[in-house]
Fold each of these.
Amino acid sequence: MTDFAKTAESIAKQARAASRLMAQCSTAIKSEALNRMAESLADAAESTIQIANSQDVAAAKQAGLSAALIDRLTLTPKRIAEMATGLREVAALPDPAGEIERMWVRPNGMRVGRMRVPLGVIGVIYESRPNVTAEAAALCLKAGNAVILRGGSEAVHSNVAIGRILHDAGQKAGLPEGALTVVDRTERELVAALLKQDRYIDLIIPRGGEGLIRTVMEQSTIPVVKHDKGVCHIYVDQAADQSMAESICLNAKVQRPGTCNAVETLLIHQAVAPTFLPKLIDRLQQAKVEVRGCARTQKLVKGITAATEADWTAEYLDLIVAVKVVDSLDEAVEHIATYGSQHTDAIITRDYQRAMEFLQIVDSSAVMVNASTRLNDGGQFGLGAEIGISTGRLHARGPMGLHDLTTIKHIVLGEGQLRE
Amino acid sequence: MTDFAKTAESIAKQARAASRLMAQCSTAIKSEALNRMAESLADAAESTIQIANSQDVAAAKQAGLSAALIDRLTLTPKRIAEMATGLREVAALPDPAGEIERMWVRPNGMRVGRMRVPLGVIGVIYESRPNVTAEAAALCLKAGNAVILRGGSEAVHSNVAIGRILHDAGQKAGLPEGALTVVDRTERELVAALLKQDRYIDLIIPRGGEGLIRTVMEQSTIPVVKHDKGVCHIYVDQAADQSMAESICLNAKVQRPGTCNAVETLLIHQAVAPTFLPKLIDRLQQAKVEVRGCARTQKLVKGITAATEADWTAEYLDLIVAVKVVDSLDEAVEHIATYGSQHTDAIITRDYQRAMEFLQIVDSSAVMVNASTRLNDGGQFGLGAEIGISTGRLHARGPMGLHDLTTIKHIVLGEGQLRE
């Protein structure tokens, strides 16, 4: 075994042992741990955390990282306070573990139920934003799991500092040793070795760019729930309330363009395009959005850049939007199936039949009628904090909260039943 | 791209295209397809199927395969009739696709729901028993998926013959081309290439021995739900009803020893061992069960073979059982956690407190009080037919029926809601 394999196995084994104790931790202890973590983070904000973070930021500047990346890396007092608030919010959420979802009686009198239990050991592989360290730890631990966190090498000092604070606070509240591990080594070989620990780790959640997700999916022998890109669409139907459509398109694009549920492509029915598009594009441009249009859009509004094939699959995460005029609901649905990423897609219409058809045929983590794509979110859906929006189809789809960080076991209450 | 990669991509792409059409197939068409398949299988039993099967059986004999393997491979008229019955039973099950599990209203008036939808494209990789071809096809198609089946090379003639019959019957009922593919090539490289088609295939289900499951898990970039071995335990507590305990231990071992939910290790509390074990072992031996015991068991009953460390992790799938005397519930639970496979474990007791403790602490796909481990089964639990018993923790755990062959999408009914 290589040194990396040994280290990975030892980390994973310790987490596995801790996960058995975590599964027996009371809700009170888990919540107390998160509240203590919040307190310790706030206390250490201006000392340990910012000192460690400034090391990362200095190194990033020296390495010539982009201003956007450096911004994502930087922990201001406000951001640290937000991390603490996040921890307290998760502490206050109901504990999914132990909940019995359903219990039924069989003809032989045996009672069968489904009890939620922690998943076990969760590994989170992420990039850039050190806030993820606290967010991911809070959700995994509250659901009763042990968690192994491996952030990007550019944030290693910040992550390790935050990790140490969370770890110590957790210990004081009674969490078992090994419940929370922040990997302090940055070698890729160690990540590769961790991804092979399927005997001890139950789930890997990669959070980051396409390259990271691809690498994790290729290397992991552990199940992966990915949080991939969002190429989200709004289809404005011929029967749309045009003023509602305008508000929703604008909100979905500009309210926070850097998020995965921001809209990237607008599909406009040809019957309303001549009246609707000039007004909409005017408002988008006022909001500093760059519009890239199909040939029919270019005819309707002068001075619009031509959209290329690459625009239909682009996740801009920026103040840019692609616009296409379509002949029918069928064409819109076909476009979404061809170019979309099954993340979030909406129809704006007053027509009952077409609303139902869109809901039925479009197959995305959220399919919406007359609402902004930006609402596909754990908080907005009332599911509590989320560890991401799953773009996979297995285990979790859409906002992934505490519930999806658990699994079930069947429980059977019998009185001597046998198999005939 | 190699020839294997090209073939794999072409199979997977065609299945992906078919899966979009399958998702829109009505329940009536899907059920009609399964009923027609059942009819065609029965019609072709004595001609096409048995001729193809006799080729496989002859080759297996020439290759010197064991009598047990040849038995599993052989399709008798009775087994073909059972396949047809299985297809009709799945046809009659309720369709999970389209079901809305829950719908709730948010403070802004937006309604959010969870709608069950087909998983998409499912690949099943299996060994030996050609019956699996019909069973797996029925469940995957009924839930609205496209399915790619790749059986063992020793059964290729049987599988291809069954596949052709199912395919043609499905087509006549209106299933799309590509909804059901039985891979007719036996090269391992083609399986390896299929396991990389994560753009087109959503789930891989391996059914077979440990070697097959290991290979699939290591090679697949597609999510895998495994159906692994069952090292199942019964713990007979000091407060057990001894006559109930005797019946359950016997039933769990001998009713069908070759199944994954048959018991493999009996843990007996030391307080009842002196009275209980001699009677139990006598009955087991009368039923031709070979008993391997710990030192304390050997002291209580003369002539018992010593159990070695390997016996505690053994999945015998045969008339053999390991017996261990334990000092406490804690020791039993610890033994199960150390040596078990988290499949099915039961406690026999009249003590409420210890029953609850066992249910809480033991973490297996089914945890039972006073019932035979053989009851961990889709049919027995009332879930309908199953494609296997998942020993993974992600997506499905325990009996995996139609429900687990679907995923969800969130549907949102709005009236112009925006993200504030």
Note: The radius of gyration of chain B is 24 Å.
Amino acid sequence: MKVSVFIATSLDGFIARPDGSLDWLPGSEDGEGGAEGEDHGWTAFWDSVDCLILGRKSFEKVLELAPGAWPYEGTRVIVLSSTRTTVPEALTGKIELRAPDPAALVEELRAEGHKRLYVDGGATIQAFLHRGLITDMTITLIPVLIGEGIPLFGPLAEDIPLKHIKSESFPSGLVQLLYEISRQ
Amino acid sequence: MKVSVFIATSLDGFIARPDGSLDWLPGSEDGEGGAEGEDHGWTAFWDSVDCLILGRKSFEKVLELAPGAWPYEGTRVIVLSSTRTTVPEALTGKIELRAPDPAALVEELRAEGHKRLYVDGGATIQAFLHRGLITDMTITLIPVLIGEGIPLFGPLAEDIPLKHIKSESFPSGLVQLLYEISRQ
């Protein structure tokens, strides 16, 4: 089973501004664009995912960005939160709310026959990385420095060696990197 | 005149461990190797440089790593320091010690006809970037996460948009990115 990250960062390693804002992403409402029409492998990746594990803040960002819509229809979604206990009524039955226990969750989903988990959200990705649970990361580098924000990576107990699988650059200036991580 | 950065970072954006250690770099004495024999464009880059601007800590790291040797023979070297007032006797005449004033220094070197400055050292790179003085950055991503250390990038007064020029990956797993920065 793959446990995957698929995310965009500024060249200085941020996934969002300090307030969660994504206006620096090309193609965002406020952004400069230039990457429209480029798929960056998202469709193929998403088609391979059978369970999305989403951090609470990212979940709330999705609700904020697309109120009333639910972009993950048809895919199992598990939201991890230590604090939140309810979900919006419209999403009842569409998401599962769980307290974070990354290792146990990965084992459970493996036993249930899942093939590829997609882990999203800054703190959530860090928690899974820290526990050696991530098997591959697709990182799309946006050609901008934003100076501060929510970092993709954080402190680790020990170095994590990566295996570079491929890189691809796009006409818009985005560079996409794929790394695999061997289980320690 | 180009004002260039040419540096390696871990995928999580560090140029050294907190204590300045570089043991995670492939080919370092303590490192795992795997990139030996790959030049990564260093020779061509260095041949294009007519002045190296080095931060004080990086200068001292060079002295520590290669005691008695001076790897920059034949190229003008300016060491920036707010605190250091003397240089080792063996280096008298080989380096110029200056108080940091990036913008004035760049103008002075431009007026003197320099073609390409190479800015090195974490705090020094950040100071030049912050003032909009860097024209291009070659960043070699090492396939490892080290969790903490001295970051390449730091806070900025405003976003710095970059122009992606090219990317190249090497058999060892290193990925080299070249970005240009337009003068604001």
Note: The longest helix of chain B spans residues 56-65.
Amino acid sequence: MLMDAAAYRESLRAYSPRVFVNGRKVESVADEPLLAPGINGVGVTYDFAHHPEHQVLMTARQGTSGKTVNRMLHINETSADLLHKLEAVRLVCKVSGCAQRYLSHDALNGLFQATKRTDGEHGTDYHQRFLAYLHEVQNRDLTLGVAMTDAKGDRSLRPGQQANRDVYVHIKERRPDGIVIRGTKAIVTGAPYMHEFLVMPCRTHTREDADFAVCCAVPVDAPGVTIVARPAGRPGEAAAKFSAKYGQSTGVVIFDNVFVPHDKVFLAGETEEGGFLTTSYATHHRHSCIGARAGFGDLLIGAGALMIEANGLDPNRHGHIRDAMVDLITITESFYACGVASSVYCVKDPAGSVMPDAVFSNIGKLLLATKIYDMHKVAHYVSGGLIVALPGPDEDHNPDTQASLSEVLMGRQDIAVEQRLEVARLIEDLTVSHQGGWYSLISLHGGGSPEAMKREIWRNYPVMEKVELVETLLDRGVLDQGQRASKQPGRCCATGCDVPTPSKMS
Amino acid sequence: MLMDAAAYRESLRAYSPRVFVNGRKVESVADEPLLAPGINGVGVTYDFAHHPEHQVLMTARQGTSGKTVNRMLHINETSADLLHKLEAVRLVCKVSGCAQRYLSHDALNGLFQATKRTDGEHGTDYHQRFLAYLHEVQNRDLTLGVAMTDAKGDRSLRPGQQANRDVYVHIKERRPDGIVIRGTKAIVTGAPYMHEFLVMPCRTHTREDADFAVCCAVPVDAPGVTIVARPAGRPGEAAAKFSAKYGQSTGVVIFDNVFVPHDKVFLAGETEEGGFLTTSYATHHRHSCIGARAGFGDLLIGAGALMIEANGLDPNRHGHIRDAMVDLITITESFYACGVASSVYCVKDPAGSVMPDAVFSNIGKLLLATKIYDMHKVAHYVSGGLIVALPGPDEDHNPDTQASLSEVLMGRQDIAVEQRLEVARLIEDLTVSHQGGWYSLISLHGGGSPEAMKREIWRNYPVMEKVELVETLLDRGVLDQGQRASKQPGRCCATGCDVPTPSKMS
Amino acid sequence: MLMDAAAYRESLRAYSPRVFVNGRKVESVADEPLLAPGINGVGVTYDFAHHPEHQVLMTARQGTSGKTVNRMLHINETSADLLHKLEAVRLVCKVSGCAQRYLSHDALNGLFQATKRTDGEHGTDYHQRFLAYLHEVQNRDLTLGVAMTDAKGDRSLRPGQQANRDVYVHIKERRPDGIVIRGTKAIVTGAPYMHEFLVMPCRTHTREDADFAVCCAVPVDAPGVTIVARPAGRPGEAAAKFSAKYGQSTGVVIFDNVFVPHDKVFLAGETEEGGFLTTSYATHHRHSCIGARAGFGDLLIGAGALMIEANGLDPNRHGHIRDAMVDLITITESFYACGVASSVYCVKDPAGSVMPDAVFSNIGKLLLATKIYDMHKVAHYVSGGLIVALPGPDEDHNPDTQASLSEVLMGRQDIAVEQRLEVARLIEDLTVSHQGGWYSLISLHGGGSPEAMKREIWRNYPVMEKVELVETLLDRGVLDQGQRASKQPGRCCATGCDVPTPSKMS
Amino acid sequence: MLMDAAAYRESLRAYSPRVFVNGRKVESVADEPLLAPGINGVGVTYDFAHHPEHQVLMTARQGTSGKTVNRMLHINETSADLLHKLEAVRLVCKVSGCAQRYLSHDALNGLFQATKRTDGEHGTDYHQRFLAYLHEVQNRDLTLGVAMTDAKGDRSLRPGQQANRDVYVHIKERRPDGIVIRGTKAIVTGAPYMHEFLVMPCRTHTREDADFAVCCAVPVDAPGVTIVARPAGRPGEAAAKFSAKYGQSTGVVIFDNVFVPHDKVFLAGETEEGGFLTTSYATHHRHSCIGARAGFGDLLIGAGALMIEANGLDPNRHGHIRDAMVDLITITESFYACGVASSVYCVKDPAGSVMPDAVFSNIGKLLLATKIYDMHKVAHYVSGGLIVALPGPDEDHNPDTQASLSEVLMGRQDIAVEQRLEVARLIEDLTVSHQGGWYSLISLHGGGSPEAMKREIWRNYPVMEKVELVETLLDRGVLDQGQRASKQPGRCCATGCDVPTPSKMS
């Protein structure tokens, strides 16, 4: 029952969400040109599940049901699962730029852990509800939007202190058959062309703010839901070599007293576990982001090499060009390596699934977040200045200029000028257009800002082990733990995980 | 006879250049909306010359004529001139993003030196021709486009080896009354709305390529000139808070057998001096670029501070936000400091003018070229993720969404949501839109790529002095110079320049 | 037959090498105080093989003999072997700073591959000779010094062009029973307290220089061998909290017509395979270096945390201190992650062993080489300025000053001043003393300089795959390979390796 | 009455301070070999004042007395003074590594401003006392030690909260004829061979801690003063090519109830002005540090170039070597440029002197503090690995090894092996020995840690101007200042300073 891209697009017709793009109501999401690149991006995850070469990466067997599901909906049971997920995300993103659907995976895995933990603490039955929902999602091969980042209002105030409580989504009313939620999620990836939203809290809330600790599933067209979205990519722009085909919409999603029946509610006031869910989701998501941005790196490396060639340069003879390409490779593969290590040193969760190692996962995301700018720099560096004055595609068919431009904009004689212009426009599209700016920004802030990663790295790192090592070397008795309440005793790695057979690197 | 911005715009009507933008012929440059932001940018340099507060910076007395001229057309005679020019460029660029006209200054100063030197070597009369031209340009208060970067073709081949010689501009024919030039300049800043072009060589050519060592002035509408340009900024886009007002067009300029009379020819085959002109121009230009990008830094610093405020954060309480702002300040002011030092340690040219110190000038440009990406990163960092999903301006007037969006997108209660959105869109415009990408790319490659700066730094640095210092400390006899043919004996600074009274920093 | 540290030290008495340290002849290496810290460092690898907690990491079963051997002498057969070796190196180096003996491992693994390949190309019997030698080394549990880096002379000339051929080790004479070698290896780790040297070429030599392509095993006290070594660590210095115990000697080793019997000769003129040996060794060695320097990172992290505590600061309240520690962690774990990924994506060698992935291995080494300086910076940053004026240990027992110094140099009241001084001196020892300088330098140049890593990264990276990806996205036919002779078609990863169960991270 | 180096050394005999070095009491500072390199370093500032070539930089006319004084004791009256001081510091430090005496200058200039301000606020007569003292110091041509950094104890507590108040120097008793001070200053540069100490507070103290806001002058041998110092440089070490000649001692100075007569007291409880003094001193000092470390850069650049030459490499042919040298130059000259700009944009103080611009001064110091590590890296990079195994000088005269080592350690044939070894040892001395470590640490923490600089940059930067710029561009009314209490309205630059004629750059 795995859909392909065409079936996915058709499946969207079953929904009638209230969507606005550029101030205009969208009549049919499946047919809206401004959203097509985003739908195409998600579509890659569907098509590749049917591609014989990619099946081992793109599908997996769900342990709780025994069924084969799309990798983007699978609960990881081994470190091999994590490594394959990482590779799968890189695979679909190097084709689509950003295939978006890995967020469904990240949220499902976070919920699998969090519902189990909540039941243990509170005697609730969230995990069973969730398993039923998980299997339904897998069987229908859905794509879920993650509605996590609240609008937040004044960042120096707690949710309950805000002048307008709707800047955070919260439980407005508890009814016998379910809950009513209200508020705004500010950044929802792919919002218009999801099947359902997973509403999740974006931090540990205090006891007073218990109503903000809510997690539930809501169809995109549930009454009371409004989506205000941006176009996906650069649809319809002739110069958009890549992002006219593939892109990503992001949307603000307003929940105006939306009713959610109990079987779709997975958290409703348990603040501690809400925080755990946020963190657990974030760890899975940052691990996925590593794969996604490595795929973007693959695109830049390939485009850079083609541009160098078209300019008539050779990295083997021009050291500064080779060094720049090595920089780009080093950036990409060193954060990717953190994703690999995070898979290898995964942690078994009491729920039965595995979680990527938090330290490596956060370090990888921190590196990609801050180095995406250097990736753009290198792409510009190796491409030369041509892009600055590159005439647009309208000029290609201007009889007054086309002939002379073609002659003088040629680089190497054996590479047609069209090819040179095409790759120059690709690099422009990826790194100079607003699509390029978007890649930077989403890399920096997506999945949490660098500050959040630093907090997690510090919180999870086994500093205490290193302290004891040094005390032993100094022939000291080790200090009493009580004196070091502020340091975690922790470990960040596990012994005895099943460890992965990689499929291939890129 | 100093024009203001309105007069400048009107003056463009006297020209009828053959200009194409987006594949369409431009009927009237002065009225073309796609070029208006570029004309506005240049206009700032005209208007500010009349502004009492700015006159000391924006005007100067030309020594050779005794007349008061626009700073952007002045030949520097003292280090104070250089410092004031640097400050003037920062001033006009922090308002306009890039006021473009400083390129006129850079080229005129390079030519002042190069024509003198050429006459000395070859007994020509270029300097007199040039002085006459200079005074005319100053009297008419023109803006000159710098047509320097050739299309270059296969970068591994010399001009004369190219399959198509037209990838470099060259002398096609020498006539009794002048020369005929032909070829393509690939990146000409502000091409459509210049009064004239200064055609200049982009490197030292070999003897065989003497015809490529040509420098002359050509009106933008001289017969045979075609300009294929990109729109300036983001004209007409409602979300373009800044770049709908101010921008920059760049164009490819094709010279198809253009006749230039002798009195406008300033170099015609003198290859060595052509190289000197390239270097001299580059040194002046890199010095100006420092001021320009510092102005861009001012914009980012101001926008960042406003965004932080609108988000409800305070750098004095949030250390990571303050640190990020300090990074942005440190980047901006440390490359600006190189511009100041380059002014202070200027070098007297035999022609009677001064040249910025080449080492500091190149270091400043190298720093801004490679750190513009970090500037964008900091701007994104302090702004938070809002920009990713920020609804466009069309949404502002959508009755179905406007009210609820306004409520939930507010940050601090005492700052209207419109103000928050406005500054978020400004940052998006400056750093996420293609305008942002363009700032990066032009910073990296404009005025020569980083490789060119490194070469110049090495070539001009007084390494030999340091070597001698160390040899003295080691009580060694200093090695014979002959053994070190590959190292320059050079000095990079002068004693006894007149040194500047700064006006103010920013 | 695995020795422990005491047995290893005793075993050195069976050798009588000609060793000079500080201009003085060493009578007994085993008893020489100036070498003791180095012997202690190697000793850790022996002792830990007997430690129950460490045995799984520190020993392994050699496939060709079925015997249990020290991990530092084992030929890797699976990716798990590589991961365990990486972890083992980190383990012994975080205790000893640098345990040195992993070089034996790196050379043996390189030779295992290279002798097999040479036999295949030249019909020689090197692999059998080598296997016999390998088993003997394992049975006797020896430590081998790697004599690879030649003195090199004028770096702009090939070996055969040098005025003095002895700046490279080479075959002086070929005899019926063996060869005579001569020349100097400039940097041999732990030279005086090795059992034997493995002499290896340091690059691919040309055909004319075939005599320089020589590899053989030579006992440290073979006639004609002279070792001029530096003291190991800071023996006898009271302030040397760490490096009076553990250190590393490096030596120049002069081979003055040393005879080597055939059964200890593993390469004798096969220039291509000599280059392969160099590269293969380097890949293994760079992988090991990653583990070694991660262990150094562990020391710094622990020492930094103790110093912060003793100063009365808390990273959870002082953001800039926490950020600095996170930097240190990020540097350490991100290059370590490259070692993990290099293990996971290992490559099967035709000889039956596995080689770490070359791209990840080189990236990891490149990162540690260039970031060790930042590691020192962070350690200094979090420690504060105390170290600058810290009175030496002689002062601790000065009755005139000891009492008052103790009082005023105390930080937190609950931490004795001795403890604060001790950790301050440890940080001084690790990062300010010449031991600290040595760590930097050896990290930068050990195992090849950054330039060498960049070359290897570029040579091994599958750029062609990325180019094809982009061409497919551009709907282009993929260019003919012939046109891209300069790019490797390569892959850098393997499918289907057995992948490791990590033991634990640190 | 300007002394030369010999007279300075002799003048120390007039003092009999209680000094301990390495646990041993020093009988005669002037004759103590362990302190000689430090005395030599200071001596350079004396000798150069008599050197005709350097007199313009090394002397100046004191406005308040009309007398010619050593630049290191001069109160700056113009921006030219500041630039010349910067150049003078670079000059003496590139010869001596660190000439130390500029700290006298920095403290005198800070006190000139602070005493004037205190008198204005409190009606005291500190400024007159100070002027009398200043002229005496200048007339006697003294060198003053800056005793500012307190021992600090538990850094999370205020001085008055410390278990032991003596971790900060404070007024123990106020007597009719003077004050009695007590406590410990932890890091005093050159302590043993100063003439007097200027005791100064290291921060703004609270009202309760008014007794800690004390500033006064104390002869090094005042009763109750004990100095516990480290050796200066590496005295007596044969391998210490540089630091056996020139070095720096730092000392802990204990004030055990030291009486100070009123005419040497310049602050006694005025907490606000104590904070101003700290800041003012710090600004002058950071400006000086820029010159000092640029001089260190000169040494490294020269040594690097010599090493490259001796290795047989040529930066013009080996791009990666040239790039590394350009990095070193760029680092050095870009922080130096901040010193130049700080001079140019100096601020007139109400006391009549000038202060370097605080933003540029702090940025320059921040850059040098964090980039000194990269300077070491580059020095190692261009030198190659030889230093790791370089035999020590004892080996040079070992008849058993000397001949063969000389032959094989030669690089280029036309450069004697002694020369190669000498420069290798120089680089080792400067960057690998504990002297190198000391340079790093003192650069990072000397004059305040990076955190302090960031605070000052933020506090002094005219953020408000940039905010207003952006608000104007957005056509907004500018926000009321009241709403922005947390932001300074400030300016960081002045109009109309006299601006400097540089002498020469290096």
Note: The CA atoms of residues 57 and 148 of chain B lie 27 Å apart.
